[in-house]
TrEMBL record:
Protein name per its UniProtKB record: ABC-2 type transport system ATP-binding protein
Signal sequence coordinates: none
Keywords: ATP-binding, Nucleotide-binding
Pfam families in the cross-refs: ABC_tran
Record-annotated ABC transporter domain positions: 23-254
Residues covered by region (Disordered): 268-290
Keyword Nucleotidyltransferase in annotation: no
Database matches in SUPFAM superfamilies: P-loop containing nucleoside triphosphate hydrolases (SSF52540)
GO function terms (MF aspect): ATP binding
Organism of origin: Streptosporangium lutulentum
Record bears the keyword DNA-binding: no
InterPro entries linked: AAA+_ATPase (IPR003593), ABC_transporter-like_ATP-bd (IPR003439), P-loop_NTPase (IPR027417)
Length: 290
């Protein structure tokens, strides 16, 4: 943990190493040319938790996710997934994870079922098991009834759930979601989260998610980390972080998670246009595909 980070209890750390962390990043650094996207990040995500990586645009969240997926190369020792080194054991890491990127990963010209079946083939699900596993994944995200409709007719929320089904087809131990609800209306956002939490409850998988939405993080994440300028500035359960700020302020007010992040990141948030609630930006797929 960097010096300026405020750290709360870490459920991933156990005595005797009985529970293995799903993800560990140690002094993770990644630059695009002169831009330090991630600047010395220490992080442990415990097996089975829903962990939220929060922060304004450009904080470095997607870069962290992409380093963990092995899509961006990092030196040995910086990132481990269930004990596997992301640099030395790339294929072992990839086999453990499901990834839903911000960009569209569903094909509008295929049905929901065909989209998921395509992923089943990519992930080498055996022919014998394929149709049952595809049906199971569609059922898990509430798309069984819409499975044979073209994805081009799906709403933004249904597309997101379809992408979730695609990522689930390999039964990943670690599911990574980059801004899963951006651009969706509140009802669709709730539906996406309900399916994420239901799948987590059913499978025990670990979920690492990035989001701008403080209210979602507060409601659905077991722990959160605030990223700002490539570093983690606060880490803990939402309740812990809010309670710590309340104690620091000692003025009887009840702060929100957003207040916590303003407190640790200071005015820098505004300078970068990083208003957490000011999410005008939407995914290209926000309302419909096709
Ligand atoms: N492919 C790239 N080439 C150059 N710079 C990049 C690239 N990808 C990201 N960056 C820069 O790295 C920094 C971190 O970007 P990143 O996308 O990780 O942030 P983020 O927190 O995920 O923000 P957002 O929510 O807007 O995606 C930003 O300054 C961004 O402009």
């Amino acid at each position: 943990m960097s010096d300026d980070a405020r750290t709360a209890a870490d459920p991933g750390t156990t005595t005797g190493g009985a529970v293995e962390d799903a993800v560990t990043c140690g002094d993770l650094r990644y630059s695009f040319g002169q831009v330090k996207a991630v600047d010395g990040l220490d992080l442990s995500v415990a097996s089975g938790e829903i962990f939220g990586l929060l922060g304004p645009n450009g904080a470095g969240k997607s870069t962290v996710i992409r380093c963990v997926t092995t899509l961006l190369p990092v030196p040995p020792g910086m990132v481990r997934v269930f004990g596997h080194d992301a640099a030395r054991e790339r294929m072992a890491v990839r086999r453990l994870l499901g990834y839903v990127p911000q960009q569209l990963s569903a094909d509008a010209s295929l049905t929901g079922r065909e989209n998921v079946a395509l992923f089943a083939r990519l992930f080498d699900v055996s022919r014998r098991e394929r149709s049952a596993r595809v049906a199971e994944a569609l059922e898990a995200v509430g798309l069984a009834d819409a499975a044979d409709r073209m994805a081009s007719t799906y709403s933004g929320g249904m597309v997101r759930r379809l992408e979730l089904a695609q990522a689930l087809i390999s039964a990943p131990r670690l599911l990574m979601l980059d801004e899963p609800t951006i651009g969706l209306d509140p009802i669709a956002r709730t539906s996406v989260w309900e399916h994420i939490t239901a799948v987590r409850a059913a499978t025990g998988m670990t979920v690492l998610v990035t989001t701008h939405y403080m209210d979602e993080a507060e409601q659905y994440c077991d722990r959160v980390a605030l990223m700002h300028q490539g570093r983690i500035r606060a880490l803990g359960t939402p309740e812990q972080l809010v309670a710590e700020l309340r104690a620091r302020r000692d003025d009887g007010s009840t702060p929100t998670l957003e207040d916590v992040f303003r407190d640790v990141a200071g005015s820098g948030l505004d300078e970068e246009g990083g208003e957490f609630r000011d999410v005008q930006r939407t995914r290209r797929t926000a309302s419909r595909v096709g």
